[in-house]
Amino acid sequence: MPNSEPASLLELFNSIATQGELVRSLKAGNASKDEIDSAVKMLVSLKMSYKAAAGEDYKADCPPGNPAPTSNHGPDATEAEEDFVDPWTVQTSSAKGIDYDKLIVRFGSSKIDKELINRIERATGQRPHHFLRRGIFFSHRDMNQVLDAYENKKPFYLYTGRGPSSEAMHVGHLIPFIFTKWLQDVFNVPLVIQMTDDEKYLWKDLTLDQAYSYAVENAKDIIACGFDINKTFIFSDLDYMGMSSGFYKNVVKIQKHVTFNQVKGIFGFTDSDCIGKISFPAIQAAPSFSNSFPQIFRDRTDIQCLIPCAIDQDPYFRMTRDVAPRIGYPKPALLHSTFFPALQGAQTKMSASDPNSSIFLTDTAKQIKTKDDDKLEQIRKDYTSGAMLTGELKKALIEVLQPLIAEHQARRKEVTDEIVKEFMTPRKLSFDFQ
Amino acid sequence: MPNSEPASLLELFNSIATQGELVRSLKAGNASKDEIDSAVKMLVSLKMSYKAAAGEDYKADCPPGNPAPTSNHGPDATEAEEDFVDPWTVQTSSAKGIDYDKLIVRFGSSKIDKELINRIERATGQRPHHFLRRGIFFSHRDMNQVLDAYENKKPFYLYTGRGPSSEAMHVGHLIPFIFTKWLQDVFNVPLVIQMTDDEKYLWKDLTLDQAYSYAVENAKDIIACGFDINKTFIFSDLDYMGMSSGFYKNVVKIQKHVTFNQVKGIFGFTDSDCIGKISFPAIQAAPSFSNSFPQIFRDRTDIQCLIPCAIDQDPYFRMTRDVAPRIGYPKPALLHSTFFPALQGAQTKMSASDPNSSIFLTDTAKQIKTKDDDKLEQIRKDYTSGAMLTGELKKALIEVLQPLIAEHQARRKEVTDEIVKEFMTPRKLSFDFQ
Do B241 and A248 touch (CB under 8 A)? Predict the structure, then answer.
């Protein structure tokens, strides 16, 4: 699978680890001198590339990138200048919020620039979604590859997800779904939505039944965003694992190719973490591969996946992209969004687990679309200059949000248990993959 | 669930770890002083019991019992006097073989004594199997509890398994199956047989398809032992995980309650092991709980499980028994067999992975039963006194084995793909659980 972007530091790190293992096993297994020499040469060259990119020597126990905090997932005191972003913690010391440009450099992803946005417009014949125009989706991996395939009439599919930690979802949670619905509409592709109720059971003080019931409740909010039932499959991990002939097989394949050292480096796990947490990243990785869904894609393994998600989920997919070529699958492409800032300020994100940080209202794209870019620009100017006061700004926000909430709640009420059940039934979607 | 035997050192160790976590969370969570005091009192008392039993203080990072070797699963040079037994390695420096009495003490299990054998005879009304009479099954956990339940007309079920590492099985592999068939016959209970093809994929250089095909081939040898198709369910993990509404849920439950520290202590895993190996013990544990098989037991969680297996599998079930009460399930009971000595001598066991160590022939109980205990005793006397020579002994063995092989092979030939498929289809068994 060609990869149009430079390898991330983590991918390089992992390649060195793999190559090192290969050299050791060749030496142990009486391989020919030529074979060993050539593997060693490759190893040395990888280490040189790593040093050039990282600015320091490769150290086996010290993976690069997002530094894992040693305790409670908070940032180190000595790293006060660094933003901290992983699937459980988003924190910065800067009142301006996370520096997303720095994050792109640190994660090794690519910026969504004007050129890419124009290309999406040309490919789809649709005006780019305002989340693209306004930089809410700001970073990507391999989106050009997806567009190449699309322009050559090759299929792809969308994958996004939700960790159902409570019954209620907040506005921030809907960002990826609103955008994903737009992608589904303009590209006309199938979509799978993973509800990681197993993850929430493992991380929170919940029973299996509670976690599953949150998955179903959250599915209603997601469905209320307007997804096409004929092109969308929503699944609870706890349920679907026992219903799919492909999902567990991919989970085991991924689990064979990721060591504890690696998840320790990527996610900051420790020896005191339960083995469920340690192996969970494979469960979030598996839907990136089309044969996890035999009811939709049969045994096709070559259909590329595009994942729209908030940037804090990227560690899962850096790991996935590292494993993919080693198990013969294409790497998933990604589109990353910023976070929805918490009500207390931009230092952290809205979190369902902290009720004070979030507006627990939800809505889809329709009305947001009617606010036009010029009006927002005027507000920005007026507020910056002082012509508009904070109280007036809040009032304007409330005027936008209140009808949004009311409409979303109305649409959510229409989502019956039968509709949820159909969305969550493994089935053929109306899309033909040859 | 009452436990009729004293807690093993490992169970005590794990209880201390759990209690310590409880104390910490009470302190963090603003619990009342009384609550905290009482939890601390319990912790101190557990630590005192541990010191009394272990002869040394409890140390959080130093689990007791079967010492995990630091590398390659071989015994330490400094432990030349100790037998080493875990699921991957059986080794002793003594030419007499493993000291099974010592193993009982070290593992904290109970000896199968004359009294227990007599009780089995009374309960079933059948002459005890010669594997019991001759000490091939020599150790147990909670077998008296199973008999209590049986005498009170309460149901139980049998669970055993096989790691399909190659197409061929050897005589040693059949020991648990021959005995399990007898248990199924005399107690008239359902039986589940796990084929851990996922384990073999993770540990060996195999593809998923190879591992699965070995599971099916091995199932034929197992079926040829004569199991009742109406009371027996054989399953491949790779297959059944995607077919059961209960299996994965129990796997996740177990995975939430076992830390990496614990599996490191029990199985000797290291940071370089893949996350699949690290989480696998939960997959072997889950069939110990009846609601992993909703097609057989519906949602019943209280049906006790009895596991006949070779003693090297005990670490999995010590872990399972530690977790069971914490997730509200009964502890599985166990019956442990010795190993079949390798052809090179009694220092290690027959291993399918070492072709020189094993006789790759198989057979079931029928003809073995016809050799009566007195004749074996005569051979023992003659060979010990020198009246019988080694050549003659070998000749006698060959005369027993050759027809056994031939008969087994004949029965195996009769096992059609359709029969295997039926054994491996999740279905109701002919046994009524209210």
Answer: yes
> Torsions phi, psi of B17, nearest 5?
-60, -45
Q: Do B276 and A261 touch (CB under 8 A)?
A: no
Judge: A275–B260 Cβ closer than 8 Å, yes or no: yes
Contact A201 B279 (CB under 8 A): no
Numbered residues of chain B with Cβ closer than 8 Å to any chain A Cβ: 198, 201-202, 208, 238-239, 241-249, 252-253, 255-261, 263-264, 269-276, 278-279, 281-282
| Interchain CB distance below 8 Å, B247 and A245 | no
Residues 6 or more apart in contact with residue A95 via CB below 8 angstroms: A345, A346, A347
Interface A–B counts its CB contacts (< 8 A) at 123
Give the residues of chain B that fall short of pLDDT 70: 1-8, 28-30, 61, 64-82, 341-371, 373, 432-434
CA B302 – CA B330 distance, rounded (Å) = 6
Q: In whole angstroms, what is the distance from residue A22 CA to residue A27 CA?
A: 9
Residues of A within 8 A of B244 (CB-CB) are 242
Question: Inter-chain contact B239–A245, Cβ cutoff 8 Å?
Answer: yes
Which pLDDT score, from 0 to 100, does residue A79 have? 39
The whole-angstrom separation of Cα B351 and Cα A256 is 23
The two structure tokens encoding residue B363 = 């057979």
CB contact under 8 A, A208 and B253: yes
Contacts of A238 in chain B (CB under 8 A): 248-249, 252
Shortest Cα distance from A237 to chain B (angstroms)? 9
Chain B residues with CB under 8 Å of A241 CB are: 241-242, 248
Other C-beta atoms within 10 Å of B334: how many? 28
What's the token pair of residue B302?
A: 């209280």
A386 contacts A432 by C-beta, under 8 angstroms: no
- Reported ipTM: 0.77
Q: Give A180-221 as a DSSP string.
A: HHHHHHHHT--EEEEE-HHHHHHHSS--HHHHHHHHHHHHHH
pLDDT confidence of residue A25: 73
Interface test with B, best of A18, A250, A275 (most B CBs within 10 A): A275
Asked if residue B433 lies in contact with residue B155, where contact means CB atoms within 8 angstroms, the answer is: yes
Of B208, B271, B278, the CB nearest to A279: B278
Structure-derived torsion over alpha carbons of residues B256, B262, B267, B269, reported in degrees to the nearest 10: 90
* Percent of chain A whose predicted confidence (pLDDT) is above 70: 84
Burial class of B185 by CB neighbour count within 10 A (0 to 12, 13 to 18, 19+): middle
Q: Which residue of A has its CA nearest to B273?
A: A259
Nearest to B234 by CA among B426, B364, B428: B426
Which among A246, A272, A281 has CB closest to B259? A272
Which three-class secondary structure state does DSSP give residue B154? coil
Residue A277 Cα to chain centre, angstroms: 18
CB B278, CB A260: distance < 8 Å: yes
The residues near A255 (Cβ < 8 Å, ≥ 6 apart) are A279, A282, B202, B274, B275, B276, B279
- Pair B274, A257: CB distance under 8 Å: yes
CB contact under 8 A, A198 and B259: no
- Percent with pLDDT over 90 in chain A: 53
Chain B residue nearest residue A278, CA to CA: B275
Q: Cα–Cα distances in Å, from B407 out to B340, B349, B403?
A: 21, 25, 6
Q: What's the CA gap between B64 and B327, in Å, rounded? A: 23
Q: How far apart are CA A320 and CA A282, in angstroms?
A: 8
**Beta-carbon contacts of residue A411 (< 8 Å; ≥ 6 apart):** A224, A226, A364
SS3 at position B279: helix
Alpha-carbon distances of A354 from A76, A169, A170, A350, B202, rounded to whole Å: 22, 12, 11, 8, 40
Q: Is the pLDDT of residue A408 over 70?
A: yes
